[in-house]
Each structure stands twice: as C-alpha cells, then as structure tokens.
Specification:
6 copies of one chain form a homohexamer. The first copy, chain A, is α+β, with helices and mostly antiparallel strands. The first copy, chain A, has a single domain, classed as Alpha-Beta Plaits (2-Layer Sandwich). Chain A is built from 4 helices and 5 strands, in the order βαααββαββ. Chains in contact: A-B, A-C, A-D, A-F, B-C, B-E, B-F, C-D, C-E, D-E, D-F, E-F. Chains A, B, C, D, E, F: Pathway: Cofactor biosynthesis; molybdopterin biosynthesis.
Chain lengths: ~160, ~160, ~160, ~160, ~160, ~160
C-alpha cells in the first residue's frame, strides 16, 4: 500500500526534503464557493457596483492568505511565489460566490496549498463581511482544478 | 434593505467599532468536512492507530490557525481567545474526515470567524498531508453550527 | 532633564510596565500624505470610479497594518484594538493622497502607534500600487492629530 | 494613458506575475526623516553616547521591518532578501533623525518596497521611543533614492 | 496518576479552556545562559562599551520574542502582555552570557511560556551574532525562576 | 582581533550582505535536551503509546518554529528551507527528552539558526505541555552538532 510522504518510518511528521529536486515552473489552480440565501446574494450584488465591494475585500484577502500558507500549514515549505491571482464571481442562479485562485512559482515544490489557501481565506472573508445578515452561509467545494510542473506532472480535475 | 456593517457610508471598509459593547461570554462552533477516495480514507485510517497520525497534525494546525484569524481576515478584531478545541473524526461510510471547532472568548466581539478558520486550516492540512496520493479531495460544508453571546444572541444551525 | 521611558537605568530597552494602570477608553487619530506627479494623481482618480481602486486596496492594508503594530514596533504592547478606521482622500490641488486613521481600545496603553502604523502602511501601499508609473512619490507629514485617554490625557495637534 | 500594473482588466488586484522574468541583482535605497522639537533632539543625542540608544533600537526595527514587507503590503511578492542595511543619523541643525535603508536581492522583482518599509518602521520606532516627551514629531520625506536591476533599469532621485 | 491538561480524554491536543478563570495579576521570571569560549566572551565584552552591542540586540530580540509566543507554542493562549523586561549580563568567570526575563499580565492564564520564550530568543540571537567566530557555544539552563498569580499559586525555583 | 560580522564599522547592526555568495547546498544539525523529574518522564512515556503524544506536538512545533526563524532572530535572512526534520527521543536513564533538528537549503546563507530555533521551540513546547505537573524542568545543551556548505566549510562538534 502507498504510504504518506509526510511521515518518516518512525512516525515523525516531516517537511519533505526537496533539496535534490530541480526547480521547475509550477502552477496550481484551485476553486471553491460560498453558498448563501437569495437576499444575501442580492445585497452583495447591490454593493458590487459601487465602492465598498465585498468581493474586492475578499479578493485581496485571498492574495495575502496565499502568502501566509507556510505559517498555517505545518509541513508546507516557505517559498517565494512569483504570481498570485484570485477572482470572485457571483452566480445568482445558485446564490453562490465562486472563487478561483492561481499561484505560480519556479521552485522545488508545488503550489497547490497556496492556491487552496487563497480560496479558503477569500471564502472566509466573504463570510465575515456578510455574517451580520446571514449566518447560514456555507463554504463548499474547495478543490484543486489543475496543477502542472514537478515530478508528479500535470493534474487536471475531471 | 439591510446594509453591511463592514462598510461606512462612503464605502470604506471598516473594522466595526465594538468599543461601546459590554464584554460577554462568547462561544462559536463551526464544522466542515474533507471528502476523499475510499483508498485515501483507508490510508488515513491505517495511520490513525500508530504514531504519525494525519488527524493529529491537522488538529494542531486548526488550533494554531484559530490564533491567526486576525492576520488573515482583514476586518477581524485581534482578540485573546480563552479556549480553542478542534476535533477530527473519520466517517468511512462517506469517505469523509469531519472537523468541528469550538472557540470561546470573554470579550466585545464574536468568535465565529476563529471557529471557521480553525476548521478551514485543519481541512487544508488534511489535504496537504494526503495530496501525494489523492489530489481530488474536496473541502466542503464549512459552516457555523452555533454561536452564543453578544447583542445578536444565540444562533443555532438547523 | 526628562528621560526616556523605554530604557531602564542600565540602558536596557523595556516594554513599559503598564500592569498598574487602570484600563481606560483610548483613542488616537493620525494622518499623513503621499505626494505625487499630476499625471499619477490623474491615473488614481480615473481608477477611483470603477472597481480596482488604489485607495480601496491601501485602505484595507492600513487596517491590517494597524493589527501588526506589536510585531513591527519592538516595545509596543500587544493589544486588542476595538476599532480601526482608515480613510483616504484625493486632493488634486496638491496632487496628494491624504490618509487619516483612527484607532480605539479600552486598555492600559495608548494606541498612537497603531494609528501611525495604519497611516504608514496605507501610504506604502499607495506607493507600491503606483510605483511602476511614478517612482518619485513622497510619503510625508505622518503625524499624530489627536489622542485621548490614559494618564497623560488629551493631546491635540495645533 | 498608461494603466496600473496591479489591476487586471476586470479590476481585480493582482500580485504581478514575474515568473517569466530572469533573476537579476536588485538594489534599492530609500530615505526619510523624523522631525522633532529641539529638546527632543537633545534628549536623543544625550542617549547616543551610552547604552540604551534610541537610534540603535530603531535601526534594528527597520531591518526586521524590511523582512515583514510581504506581510504588510498586499501585492508585494514574498522574497529572500540577501542584504538589509539601515542607518540613522542625527542632524541637529534640522532637529531631524535621518534614516536611510538599502536592500538587495537576486531575484525576479525589485526591492523598493522593502527599503521604503525599513525606513518607515525605523521612523515609527523613533516616534514610539520618544513620544512620551514629544507627540508633535513628524515622519516625513520617505522616498526612493535609487534603484537598479530589472527591466525598468536604474532610477536615481534628482 | 496525574494526567496532562493539554489533552482531552480522546487524546486531542487542546488549548486549555480558561474562560471560567478570574483574571489575576500574573508574573513569571525565567533565566538561561549562553556558554562560550573565553575569546568569544572577550570579543563581546569589547563591544559592550561602544555602539553595536551584542547584548543590546539580543535584549531587544528577547522582548519581541515574548510577543510571538502564541505563534510559536501551539497550545499557548494569545494574550496582551502588560510588561516584558529582559536583561543580559556577562559573567566572565564562567564565560557566560546570563539572561533573565520577566513578563506580566492581568489575565486568565500564566506567562511562564512568554518569559521562557524571551530567554530562548535572546539566547539564540546571541548565538547568531557571534557564530562566525564560535560555533561551539551552548544555550543552557533555561528554566523558570518564579511565577505568581493564578490558581496554582506561587512557584519559586530552589 | 577578529571582529563581529553583524556590525558595520559605525556600530550599526547589519543583515550580512550575502548577495555575492554562490548558492550552495547547506545543511545544519542542532540538538538539545529537556531535563525533568522522574515522575514527569514517566507521564510522557505513558502518553507516547497512545494518541495525544507530547513528543508529537513538540515535534510539529519545532518544524513550524524553524520556518519562523527570520521573524525571531533580527539579523537572520529570510530563506526558503528545502527540508526540516525534527526528532524527539526519551532517555529515561537521564530523565531527558532529547531533541535533534536538521535543516537544509540550497542558498547563499547557512541554516544553523533554523536548526537551533527548531530545537528551542520543540523544547519550549515540551515544557508548555508538561508544566502543570513539573515547573522545575530545564532546557539545556542547545548546540550545533554539524554544519556543511558555504565558504566557512564543514563544522563538526567534538
């Protein structure tokens, strides 16, 4: 049976040793959604056309969150991201805020966790800004859409 | 129409002024799940009986993540949590890791975001530790189960 | 001659012992400006009417910066701000972005440094976002406008 | 009209994608001043000859502040500075503390923000250490003196 | 047999729930030493009389380190220290730098870890600044000297 | 007499300029111990066989602590560690928890401080988790065992 790379044979958690890996161009794309009541969606939409936009605040929080990944995820390597892009879109048909994040690095380790963390922090920020009117929102379907670079090659979600 | 508390009339984002609020006992409980392939679930279960447990690492990351909430969520107040509890359980029937976090504070502001952040960081850590064998996991259904304390009173998810 | 409170008689830097002080309501207001070329000002003005506003990003950075004050200023106390408000305005007559920050706390120590740090970080963020078109901007006149609360009483800039 | 590099066409704030840039040697030099009352200047001068020097504390804070730049400035890349140098000098003729910071990196992005942040944090620290005797100090003229390296070439303040 | 307060009956690590404790005045004093070669000690002594003092840098790092305790120690509560004092002294007879830290808080939890962390970070900083000339230094005897306040009362090292 | 690399001729603390150094493979190994009462040792041993292991929590804290080194040690360079490994072992004969940390980097500066910080944070975490039953523990003998890479070559503790 395959075993987990983050433990050594004695059961110690380890930051995986990537020192022998060649630096390659790494890209990861992650996505997720915040589901809410119809009235809440309408409120966010109404703000979106003027200054003081919920999505703009969440978008910035997502970018900053990507940078905090090694502080949050115990076994993630500290790394120097070369690009972070976060986009939020309203889907009124589903009463959803859809979030997508893309991270890039030329380095020895992938950036999946950075993209997933960006999505998570953006989603939490949407929740925070709207929670006074809707506590029943759900953050859902946070997943990896795509990764490329590195020894394990390209992954594309089906 | 109700408006959002995190913007002033000019559209400036604001950290809500809680200085006039009386400190009260605040509790918040949040939950969420990581869904995965059956083989991945089996792998985590196998580890759970020995040292080097995925859930133990994620559980600790969740506690530490709760403390980083004001660094991550732009308009959250910095605050001195009096308790953080994070629990992870396997549900093999759903191939799910279920996460629940409880935060407490005696203070002027609620701790919903701290509980939701604890769940999110624990979920991301599960993903990180298992991603070498399963990139198609989903972090899902992050939501508030319960809050009490403060002017808005008690909320209980249905 | 008056001496400095941040050194003990041996010359050791100290975080001033505030444990015997009664908690009082503290407020501090600080301000500052970023001066730039007329063309740069025009560019920021043009953005201000649509999504993707320089001032909105800087405004959020200022709020988050206030929370990082004890990490940055060696002898500042960690504290639980109850309010942070940051406002940026364009003054086209002076080709200036004017920044004002207000912080509040009920506690044993003042929040002047938090307000000044919020202004500084907002100003640095304006610089960052516009530096590709204007490297000659100046951050200037960062100062305390007002403080109240605490043993030293109220200060009002003339 | 030139547009801002930190927004995409939809108005999303972006961390600029530098992944296609070649790493080059980057240097940035920034400066700024803290202006104060003559008595305050005399007090700092008096300390400078013994242990417990205001300038030494501010100088160290500036170096540490440079390292926190990506945590503070939302769209700054995380990066691995190869050198930070901060110098503070008294100019009694102007009752000024003059601060200069030099940062270096071999990388894909400039270090102007790191140098400007070092100056800002050093200046805020001077303010903090002396504010008990002089609240009317001003942090002023924070500016870029020089940068070299990268596609945009060398900038020299006039 | 006594059991550990930081685990629940299921073996989950927990941040101990202090929400029912009354805030009391807490004090903790910790100490430790850095042992080195006689030549290294002489070098530090020589610097101590002029600007650029190893002990002054380490002393400041210790104060800042105390503030980072909840970021470093997984189950420590975030808290608002009311005083941090760090002192370093040379003992040439033992070729030792002796470090002592005192932390205070009015709160629901003790500050032993903050005092011990301050000593550790100050000791590490001494090592860092002198390691180019002496890699064989030892950081040793980090211990709690005294604590008071809280339910467990006063502890005094023998 | 040799002088210290972390001060310039004027006595300013400096982050050493490594920009002219070639990146090489760097390794550092550090160690240290926590000494305790026999009953405390027995308590930790009893936990080690089930979930909720003191050593597992401390081990993870050590890895995360290594990543915080540039935040803690004022003149340390920020850097992108390629590997961190922390191991804790009980030595019942000495009533000691022995800690060893290994850090790696391909870069321009050594990782001794990262390894020493990992050991220190792991030791502090052991103290934190057991302090309710034993306040007289000592953290001791934190030292560099080995370093290789860089201009100063290999160091091996005797």
């Amino acid at each position: 049976m395959t075993d987990l790379t983050h433990f050594d044979p004695l059961g110690n958690a380890v930051m995986v040793d990537v020192s022998a890996k060649a630096p390659t161009e790494r890209v990861a794309v992650a996505a997720g959604s915040v589901l809410m009541a119809a009235d809440t969606m309408a409120l966010i939409q109404a703000r979106g056309v003027k200054k003081g936009d919920v999505l703009a605040v969440a978008q910035l929080a997502g970018i900053m969150g990507a940078k905090r990944t090694p502080d949050l995820i115990p076994l993630c390597h500290p790394l120097a991201l070369s690009s972070v892009k976060v986009e939020l879109q309203l889907d009124p048909a589903r009463n959803a805020v859809d979030i997508q994040a893309t991270c890039k690095l030329t380095g020895q380790t992938g950036v999946e966790m950075e993209a997933l963390t960006a999505v998570s922090v953006a989603a939490l920020t949407v929740y925070d800004m709207v929670k006074a009117v809707d506590k029943s929102m759900r953050i859902t379907d946070i997943r990896l859409l795509h990764k490329s670079g590195g020894k394990s090659g390209t992954y594309q979600a089906v």
